[in-house]
Amino acid sequence: MEERFETFTALVTGISRAIRRIKNEEMVEFHLKGPHVSCLYYLYKEDVLTAKELCDLCEEDKANMSRALDFLEKNGYILCKTQAGRRYRAALSLTDEGKKVGAHIAARIDRVLLAASEGVSESDRRTLYECLTKINDNLNRVCHTYQEKSN
């Protein structure tokens, strides 16, 4: 059981670090960081999202998302279609510059996914994602029980 824990946590941590490193390296020319990349990617794919929807998709908390969106808006990548104070549920969209960078990000993500999937069959990938989804759901359920105990 202990070996299973070590293998699982080492692999998940290694994958997470690699993703973070790739995001940082790929976006250095745009002076963007990981959360910025995720926001631009999802807005590019979906056209319009709210900050709440981005929080859910990017798995970021509200404060981190707010900082990322402030940066992206101030640097001309996104538009917020509301007045200040009501931004969390306001429609967010990409500017022309944001669309250009979003297309660049999407193309790079496609290349990285292709490289990461090398030697993995479609069937194996589907099984992997199904298993990871179950593990994620199970771990979130465990976390929820801890949260309930502390309240």
Bulk shape: globular
How does the helix and strand content classify structurally? mainly alpha
What Rg do the Cα atoms give?
18 Å
| Order of H and E elements | HHEHHEEHH
Structure annotation, total helices? 6
N-to-C span: 30 Å
With strands numbered from the N-terminus, the spatial order across the biggest sheet is 1-3-2
- Poorly predicted spans: none
Which percent range fits the helix content? over 70%
**Which band does the percent of strand residues land in?**
5-15%
> Sheet bearing the most strands, described?
3 strands, antiparallel
Give the beta-strand count: 3
Mean pLDDT: 89
In short:
With 151 residues, the chain is mainly alpha-helical. 73% of the residues lie in helices and 5% in strands. It has helices at residues 2-27, 34-46, 51-58, 62-74, 96-116, 122-150, and strands spanning 48-49, 78-80, 92-94.
